[in-house]
Amino acid sequence: MNPQAKLLSITSLFLGSTITITSNHWIMAWTGLEINTLAILPLISKSHHPRAIEAATKYFLVQAAASALLLFSSMTNAWYTGQWDITQLTHPTSCLLLTTAISIKLGLVPFHFWFPEVLQGTSLTTGLLLATALKFPPITLLLLTSPSLNPTLLTILAIASTALGGWAGLNQTQTRKILAFSSISHLGWMAIILVYNPKLTLITFYLYCLMTIPIFLTLDTIKTLKLTTMSTAWTKIPPLTATLMLMLLSLAGLPPLTGFLPKWLIIQELTKQEMTPTATIIALLSLLGLFFYLRLAYCATITLPPNSINHMKQWQTNKSTKMFITTFITLSIMLLPLSP
């Protein structure tokens, strides 16, 4: 890809996210989301593969429809209340439309169909942007409007996302699709606590990004896109592949790793809100995701390939692991034991 075009796309991504995060007016928030959508399209389709073009087309259509619905929601609220301020979303119909629009943008169930397909059609670095950076502006809009949102609707969407994210990931062999369903499951944890404690949603999102970034970077370093090649990936950089198991278990939420912290806090907050049955259900549903995390960890570190393999064995071609990957790995595994 042309360096100038890549620089323009990345700069536009930062600009669009900044506009949405810092705006108080619905039109400016919508403008930032549109800039984000247009900036990521060249990065998705840069390989010129038919699958990448298909992913870019799907992403554009879904995001354009969600942005139009968000604009319609803000216009409806302005029609009835005369307010264009993001924090003054008070009309019930506008709140429902906004929740639907942000759910489409994030990929919450039942609007999740586009996300695994788009992530499968992109490179791992672009998929990392889709799974982390591009979810921050819509989540910010949810945080700003959280006092007006319907808690029952968000709870239903959250439980459905956690259930489907775990269930659909069980039958996958592509690592990018597994990480996509993992993202959907974690979005359910963020959505369920949004109305009761918005700051906890933000902490959960930050920690999810902290755990997902090193996994994507590690898979990109060892060039592993599916489970069949993961069993031979240890021949490239054995220490990095060994720590991949701990990163996956941290993403699954096993104590005392970093991923246990947000789930612990969310279950504690739901119990304080006298929602113990809901906390029990979402905790049990997250066990579905634990199975495919364990399968990934098993394939990466414990499994040895059989003698008759139908693909070329990997070899140690590049040992130069970037320093920032090591930093992210340490934080994604040891943040909870190291913190007071």
From TrEMBL:
Domain NADH:quinone oxidoreductase/Mrp antiporter transmembrane: 23-287
Catalysed reaction, written as an equation: a ubiquinone + NADH + 5 H(+)(in) = a ubiquinol + NAD(+) + 4 H(+)(out)
Record membrane topology: Multi-pass membrane protein
Superkingdom, taxonomy of origin: Eukaryota
Top EC class for this record: translocase
GO terms classed as biological process: mitochondrial electron transport, NADH to ubiquinone
GO-annotated cellular components: mitochondrial inner membrane
NADH dehydrogenase subunit 2 C-terminal domain: residues covered: 290-340
E.C. code: 7.1.1.2
Predominant localisation class: mitochondrion
Keyword list, A-Z: Electron transport, Membrane, Mitochondrion, Mitochondrion inner membrane, NAD, Respiratory chain, Translocase, Transmembrane, Transmembrane helix, Transport, Ubiquinone
TM ranges: 56-76, 96-115, 152-171, 178-196, 202-219, 240-261, 281-302, 323-339
GO function term, MF aspect, one: NADH dehydrogenase (ubiquinone) activity
Cell location: Mitochondrion inner membrane
Protein's job: Core subunit of the mitochondrial membrane respiratory chain NADH dehydrogenase (Complex I) which catalyzes electron transfer from NADH through the respiratory chain, using ubiquinone as an electron acceptor. Essential for the catalytic activity and assembly of complex I.
Family per similarity comment: Belongs to the complex I subunit 2 family.
Protein name as catalogued: NADH-ubiquinone oxidoreductase chain 2
